[in-house]
Amino acid sequence: MTGDTLAQLRAHPYAPVQRVLGVLLMLFSLTHLVPLLIALWEGRAVNAFVGAFTLTLLTGVLVWLPVRGLRRELRLRDGFLIVCAFWGVLGLYGAIPFMVADGAGLDFTNATFESVSGLTTTGATVISGIDELPLAVKYYRQQLQLLGGMGIIVLAVAILPMLGVGGMQLYRAETPGPMKDTKLTPRITETAKALWEIYMVLTLACAVAYWAAGMSPFDALGHAYSTVATGGFSTHDASLGYYDSPVIHWICIVFMLAGAINFGLHFAVWRGGGRLRDLARYWRDPECRFLLQIYGGLALFVAGVLFANQVYTQPVEGFTAAAFQVVANATTSGFAIAPFSTWPSLLPFLLILVSFLGGAAGATTGGLKVIRVQLLTKQGAREVNRLVHPAATLPVKLGQRAIPNHVIEAVWGFFSVYAAIMVAMTLLFMLSGLDQVTAFSAVAATLNNLGPGLGELSATFASVPDAAKWLGILGMLLGRLEIFTLLVVFTPAFWRR
User: Fold this and answer.
1) What would the DSSP string read from start to end of 308-364?
2) Taking the model in full, what pTM does it have?
3) CA–CA separation, 187 vs 89, rounded Å?
4) Residues of the chain scoring pLDDT < 50
5) Which residues on adjacent β-strands are paired with residue 398?
6) What is d(CA 56, CA 48) in angstroms, rounded to the nearest whole number?
7) Torsion sign, CA atoms 386, 391, 392, 398
8) Which 3 state secondary structure label does DSSP give 251?
9) Residues whose CB falls within 8 Å of the CB of residue 70, separated by 6 or more in sequence, listed in order
10) What DSSP character marks residue 215?
11) Helix-strand-coil percent breakdown of the chain, rounded to 5?
């Protein structure tokens, strides 16, 4: 390659994007090394992970090399483009082991669906016979959710400054929620490190708790990866229902809730030392309190319906099942300990609906997010009060904090686009051949990053047409990137200089 060609590449306006994508692909290739070691130990699926590691690393190197010497600060639009391109590219390269590994052997569509589902922490699967998969493939599925939970790009933000690339634009594009401009620490690198330290401590604590409760070390680690990430992948076809243990089920509930709480709030408690008065921050935080109240109220209601229909007769068993499925669906984890799609009355539809609620902003969950639902509720109440007192000044408040009008407008904008996409996707799923109930639950399962659905989706997505699977992949990416991050790159204004 001539010097003039190199100069042209480096002068290209998107050369910084190319450089970062190359670095991120090289970083992602390293994540294949642990499953490769497991494959070598078991003697299965070795070629799949050798090939995936080699191909991903070489691609990253080839993308990075032409612009390796470039030192230029990223613009905000570069951050959006990197995030969107990276999640798409990552989903494709993450599919390689599923296509090549013995015992998996998925075609391109199914492998990509499984890969994107893992990375977006959706938990929808096209695989049946998970118990029979090679250990390396089972571990790899769970690891995808670990990486996707906090976002591999947030991890990379802690590394990129050492390579001469600023990270704030990536962080703003990647982190979800309406209040995402707030940093936990003065330096963005320290923020990313703090988030990942908390995330990994919670994950390890979850693994230890699972192991102490009777899981094997492999299952304990694998389920911890997907519990705090609120992903829902399991190392067994029966999900957490494989373990007939209320202790394991309640451990899962606790750590799904931990993953659903704003990690900025976790940081505040952690920085305070975890004393009793610091732990009280969880209840004093209006978003966290609202989340716990809604989850608790829904769990009591579901338990009441189950008892009324005599699905369960033992109080502890019935309330555990109700609380587990409410928390699993509301946090968009998608774990299951009972076939809730066969539960009576309105419960299956209600449990799909609660996935639209989601968890807190700045958490690992999908859905609308609790803070948006809270603000929409308060805004609705304000409009009713204005009819009675039209001249009154009625600010929308969270706790003692008045929320600026531009935040309220952004929430309404997000909700309207979310609703429009939900309707459009439902119609498109129906056009692909799904019935109304299955189509609606497919939207909830993918756009909310929930995983399980109703009808033929109650177990896997394996039976749906390929067109519906690609639509589901788009829905998972839209949900993971909170819609606007992905949609913005398709607007003409984004590409104007």
Assistant:
1) HTTS--SHHHHHHHHHHHHHHHHTT----SS-GGG-STTHHHHHHHGGGT---TTSS
2) 0.90
3) 28
4) 162-163, 165, 179
5) 401
6) 12
7) positive
8) helix
9) 10, 15, 16, 19
10) -
11) 70, 0, 30
